[in-house]
Amino acid sequence: MSAPVLQVENLHVHYQTSAGIVKAVNGVSFQLQKGERLGLVGESGSGKTTTALAIMRMLEGPARIAGGEVILDEIDLLKLSDDEMRMVRFDRISMVPQGAMNSLNPVMRIREQIRDIFEAHGRALARSEVEATIAKLLARVGLRPEVAGMYPHELSGGMKQRVCIAMAIALKPQVIIADEPTSALDVVVQRQVVETLGDVQRELDAAVILVGHDMGLMAQFVDRIGVMYAGRLVELSPVAHVFSSPMHPYARQLISSIPNLEEKRLFKGIPGVAPSLLDPPSGCPFHPRCSEAMARCSVEVPALCETAPDRWVACLLYDEVLSHDPTS
Amino acid sequence: MTPLLEAQHVRKTFLTGGFFKRTETVALNDFSLAIDEQQPIITAIAGESGSGKTTLARLLLGVIVPSSGSVRYKGVDVSSMKRDQWRAFRQDVQAIYQDPFEVYNPFYRVDHVLTTPIAKFKLARTSAEAADLIDATLRKVGLRPEETLGRYPHQLSGGQRQRIMIARALLLRPKIIIADEPVSMVDASLRATVLESLLRLHEEFGISLIYITHDLTTAYQLCRDIKILYRGSVVETGDVEQVIKQPQHPYTQLLVGSIPLPDPSRRWGEDTTTGTRQSDVALTGCLFADRCPRLMDRCTTATPPLFQTSATRATACYLYEGETQASANAFAEQPIANEVS
Ligand SMILES: Nc1ncnc2c1ncn2[C@@H]1O[C@H](COP(=O)(O)OP(=O)(O)OP(=O)(O)O)[C@@H](O)[C@H]1O
Ligand SMILES: Nc1ncnc2c1ncn2[C@@H]1O[C@H](COP(=O)(O)OP(=O)(O)OP(=O)(O)O)[C@@H](O)[C@H]1O
Ligand SMILES: [Mg+2]
Ligand SMILES: [Mg+2]
Does B188 touch chain A (CB under 8 A)? Predict the structure, then answer.
């Protein structure tokens, strides 16, 4: 396999609150190949957005990257100065943030907002090329050129989402992170937005990280899925495997809680409450809710291990299998 | 009998655009619905982004007033209620708003969202009782009280904020809950947990639920009937099983055909879209005509009314013209509640 475009190594992120330190991301590691589409799913509050923001160095307030590396093309982004990082954003790696539609500047026309991105990266467009460049960019996401002259409030939710995607791809980055880019859209528009993202991704041969809860969308769009629980990546496998034979008990329950159109009123939520991030349980963070927990699980923290080719899981059940399997 | 809450031929328009060129957007058109206290409903409202769903919720909650038609609570027009009626209305009809990023005041801790209604509606006698109530309600939506209370809104994830709004609605034990995309930002497992608790409220306490959503699968899971909105009008309404399994209106067909299946081996079908709509200019005739694969001459000349296509459903499309015509609120007057068992 070729060298990955993005490599996240043992990332830790903490938030300081009055009640103590929230360990929102706890040793997350993964690699992203060129042109790959990775889905990031998992419990609400498990640290997906925090991971994405940490990679982008866009964390705010009392957040602190407590450790780890984020390597983009052999450069550790966490070691760059703020100014250097500003040049990398949009140019090499860009993000469509959660609730992106609200991130547009309400008093600026779309044209100015897009032009700013070029300017801020020392690629100011000549007067003569502004219109054509912006029109081409908007066309890429299926928007008419007139949209350039509009203000955000004049656009529908789906149109604003596409503007955000257009901005994210304006400088042709190698990595695009999209945090729930379609959770507010109807399925028709959702499909158009996601297909747009897919087309652009293929055209640029960029890698995409899609963060979200819509498992249908994940099934249709990504190549691999990472499942997060309590600040950790507990499973990382090709999409078909995650849906057909998830390994981690949390991933299994998550998959089985997906509703379908065959049977009604089958609500299969996972009993119990997500673990504390202030005072996490000892051992595996899922053990208090896990139906297969063993005595060891409350003591040992399982590491993410490759139990089969390209299938990674952080669970002691598989550790047993490995150590007791005479063939391994 | 007077319904608890009733919308009669409600229409809402907004003026938008610049100083010189103002255009009128019809956000909701001729919408009717009635909720009887004795026959609680559990209805989904789905449809295009921007089709008027949130506008409908705000109208039913009395936050905005209709341009024409009326919203009545126990027979009294919501826009002209006396103080004590308004107060009772505000307790009986609760909202779970769509955007958890918008509703919070960033300067108050999230506790505020829960303690205010307890004080206002005197839901607890002592502060210990109030604390217990808050504690129990937060747990119902999968939140840890000790790690939620005391925080500011920005210190919580999107899904956590959304669940506090649900906790607030549960706390108040209203008669009607209008939930606008209540679980769009939480994972599948929590979605199931939260929707199940809403369903339990409906079944055990007879609370009516209006579930506004883009997620047709959960609408199907939870609700008995569904209304599909397109550009402010109801284009199809009826039994959820029938509408989702055999959609009649071409827009509903497009919508159902676009549901992403949670199965990587079954790809989205061929794209059936005839593009997005090109303009907001009011057309004469059917609002879906400019995208409809089954366009007929008549579709561009007159607006199709809702045709009652069976005892339990109606569709606003000339393809079903042979069938008898439904009055806009046929479903409201005879809740489908009874005959599905
Ligand atoms: N500014 C903050 N201060 C303190 N804690 C925070 C802050 N921002 C987030 N957190 C906490 O960090 C954890 C991870 O949050 P994050 O937003 O990354 O979750 P997420 O996986 O994106 O969730 P969702 O799916 O609900 O969007 C949550 O428990 C959240 O409460
Ligand atoms: N205050 C307002 N001023 C002007 N136009 C408005 C206002 N509120 C809503 N609209 C318009 O009314 C229409 C319906 O909007 P509404 O928010 O009800 O849609 P929705 O169905 O809730 O959409 P979504 O699925 O994106 O939440 C849209 O065209 C919107 O732009
Ligand atoms: Mg998030
Ligand atoms: Mg809405």
Answer: yes
In a domain, A215, yes or no: yes
CA atoms within 13 A on the CB side of A151: 8
CA-CA-CA-CA torsion sign (B18, B22, B27, B32): positive
CATH architecture observed for domain B5-257+267-325: 3-Layer(aba) Sandwich (3.40)
In DSSP terms, which residues pair with B227 in a beta bridge? Answer: B45, B237
Q: Is residue A327 part of a domain?
A: no
Whole-number CA gyration radius for chain A: 21
Asked if residue A325 is part of any domain, the answer here is no
**Closest CB to A243 among B184, B221, B262:** B262
Q: Does B216 touch chain A (CB under 8 A)?
A: yes
Task: Indicate the number of domains in chain A.
Answer: 1
Per-residue model confidence as pLDDT tens for chain A (328 residues)? 568 999 999 999 999 988 889 999 999 999 999 999 999 999 888 999 999 999 999 998 789 999 999 999 899 999 999 999 999 999 999 999 877 777 899 999 999 999 999 999 988 888 888 999 999 999 888 888 989 999 988 887 778 888 999 999 999 999 999 998 887 788 988 888 888 889 889 988 999 999 999 999 999 999 999 999 999 999 999 999 999 999 999 999 999 999 988 888 778 888 877 888 888 899 999 999 999 999 999 999 999 999 999 999 999 999 865 554 444 3
**Domain residue limits, chain B:** 5-257+267-325
Tell me the pTM. Answer: 0.88
Are residues B161 and B181 in contact, defined by beta-carbon separation less than 8 angstroms?
A: no
DSSP B325: B
In Å, what is the CA distance from B266 to each residue of A149, A243, A255, B261? 40, 12, 16, 7
Identity of the amino acid at B231: R
**C-alpha to C-alpha distances, A44 to A189, A230, B170, nearest whole angstrom:** 24, 9, 20
* Cα torsion through A134, A137, A139, A145, rounded to 10: -10
Helix (H), strand (E) at residue B73: strand B68-73
The 8 Å CB, 24+ separation contacts for B23-30 are: B23/B280, B25/B280, B26/B231, B26/B232, B26/B282, B27/B52, B27/B55, B27/B232, B28/B52, B28/B55, B28/B56, B28/B59, B28/B232, B29/B232, B29/B233, B30/B69, B30/B233, B30/B234, B30/B328
Report the complex ipTM: 0.85
Closest residue by Cα to atom 1, ligand 2, is: B14
Whichever domain contains A124, its CATH number is 3.40.50.300
Is B191–A213 a contact, with Cβ atoms under 8 angstroms apart? yes
How many Å lie between the centroid of ligand 3 and the Cα of residue A45? Answer: 7
C-alpha A94 – ligand 3 centre gap (Å): 16
Asked whether residue A184 is domain-assigned, the answer is yes
Query: The domain containing residue A248 runs over which residues?
Result: 6-318
